[in-house]
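Hi all, long-time lurker, first post. I run a small reading group and we've been trying to get comfortable going from sequence to structure in the token notation. Rather than ask abstract questions, I figured I'd post a concrete chain and ask someone more experienced to write out its structure so we can walk through it together at our next meeting. Sequence below, copied exactly:
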Amino acid sequence: MPETAGPKPVAEPRYEAPASSAQEPLPPPSAPPAAAPPEVGQGTAPATEAFAEPVHAAQPGAEASRREPQVPEPAPGQGPPAPNHGPAPRPLYIVHVAPELAPVAKVGGLGDVVFGLARELEVRGHHVEVVLPKYDAMRYDHIFGLAQSYHDLWVPWQGGAIHCTVYFGFVHGRRCYFIEPHSRENFFNRGRVYGFGDDVLRFAFFSRAAVEFLWKAGKHPDIIHCHDWQTALVPVLLYEIYQHMGMTHPRVCFTIHNFQHQGIAGSDVLRATGLNHPERFFHYDRLRDNRNPFALNLTKGGVVYSNFTTTVSPRHAWEAKDQGQGFGLEPTLHVHHGKFGGVINGIDFDVWNPGSDPHIPVHYDVGSIDRKYENKRALRHRLLIADNAKPIVAFVGRLDPQKGLELVRHGLFETLRHAGQFVLLGSSPDERINHEFLWAKNQLNENADCHLEIGYNEELAHLIYAGADMLLVPSRFEPCGLTQLIAMRYGTIPIVREVGGLADTVFDKDHSDRPLHERNGYVFRNYDNRGLESALGRAISCYYQYPEDFRNLMRNAMRCDYSWNIPGQHYLNIYEYIRAK
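-- Answer (accepted) --
Happy to help. Here is the structure in token form:
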């Protein structure tokens, strides 16, 4: 490994983790769990009782934007937890290594999740830092106090080393480090985050640089939390290289946000990162892709080498392991099922708050729900659609085949046939898909009950959530989904397909076995027109024929607590579990 010229750190906010009671080596990647797994949803059958993930039940006080940390409510039928007279658990030192962080580097929901979870953990008294690439396309106006923090970080790469500078700054209160490499590859100065032929090498470098920075800066976090394939090499590097250099304290939690993208690579990534001995890593039990014996799979490496792997809902954990939605990783998830589970994402209740949202004209809450209709009128005025008594059905999100675009198009015309109005906000990186929806927009140009906005506008998204009556989410697969959570926060009723995180968060008004006060939307099972027509038709019929029932459904949705409160506790359970291993 090339020798550095000697790191020269400058003054920076520094957290010294309390001394660990043991500094044992990291457990081998194939080691089984040493104790019972933490209370998170495991990748098993989808029956309600199969998941330890507590229900985000409707809570009368859920509309409060923030609250003091509190003990999670026990499951129904359980008594209060026994009092704990032992010492309070010490704060954890947690480092997130991620390719995105909202709002500075946001492509999808991953950036929101990293920010929301980091903030929740800080609210609970833990020290949290986030390590990111320093993209040229970041929103630098959201970074406070950006300054060089570490000079002369030399990162081993391709048998030599690349010189990097590390910057520190606050992103809406989050402590963040940004790694900027100085090399002819120009890894992160390309105008956007993803979409290049060498993305695997770009983020392999970032993974090596992130761990090198933690080691050179003397940082020994309790937990390193990695996100998606872009950072999946972190636990591999930690186990194969850095623990032998003395970095034995951190444990790794690895979260897979989307199994569809796994980081498929060749042997060049091994040479580049210093993971020599390709015969070792092309072994089926390590990084060799399950489908292609001549390829490496970075996500598989993250599963094998991490201490615990999560995905973003209990239902999706089961689907990925047992229902063919692991995109080839099913055998690996079965082997490592004892350290695999699902935790539903939360949403930021400060950003998504109809009681204080700066992007909507009229604020409201569950006690003043009639004021929502003033936002409905404002939405119609902005989009130039008819102001009448019809319900507005909306779609907000990426125009990606995963989102069920055939059913979105069918839902548009089905809404119009059922005397409703339809609003769409979204775009696709695939111009062919954009053109298809632009064609539909032109065909419906004269229809006063329809507006399709091909693009994305954050302010308009907030207004749609506040002004629409229903939100359509007919996904083919959906690891978690955030749009249905946001919609419920605003009293907009989700109409969803029973898949992934949608099935874990939306409970059908007519057919759910949950108590009436926990039912919060409409659900259909099969990915076909008939299923969508049934759910959409029932929703619109209830709106017209049983307005008070629909109003109660809106109240149920607004009382649901899908903040980061419960997911934050689940992740702390995981952290404590793997820290003790």
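A couple of things your group might point at:
Residues 199-216 form the longest helix (18 residues).
Residues 366-563 form a domain with the Rossmann fold fold (CATH 3.40.50.2000).
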